[in-house]
Write a sequence for this structure.
């Protein structure tokens, strides 16, 4: 069963569509503050950082120290990176492209 089949239903469709309507960082903060607990948001942020660090081949020990997550969470993120729905890979690639674009833009302004 793919992640779409497990996740997709009218309620999650509506959530995804709502997230896609957010236009900037401020709107995202406002929406996520209302829809999730601080702990839930921080957990999602930690998992994204774990994925970034795994992609840089950092050790579980270093990742746990920096993020505060358990090795079980690191293992889960690693499993998703390698065998998941490619959501982490997609966003990590786009974040990298965004960083490169910002560097190129800043160099062009010099």
């Amino acid at each position: 069963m793919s992640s779409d089949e497990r996740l997709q239903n009218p309620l999650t469709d509506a959530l995804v569509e709502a997230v896609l309507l957010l236009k900037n960082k401020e709107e995202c903060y406002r929406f996520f503050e209302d829809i999730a607990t601080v702990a839930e948001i921080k957990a999602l942020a930690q998992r994204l950082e774990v994925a970034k660090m795994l992609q840089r081949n950092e050790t579980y020990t270093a990742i746990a120290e920096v993020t505060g997550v358990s090795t079980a969470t690191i293992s889960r993120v690693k499993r998703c990176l390698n065998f998941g729905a490619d959501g982490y890979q997609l966003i990590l690639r786009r974040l990298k492209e965004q960083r490169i674009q910002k560097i190129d833009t800043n160099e062009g302004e010099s």
Q: What stands out?
A: The mean pLDDT is 93. Residues 40 and 96 are 25 Å apart (CA to CA).
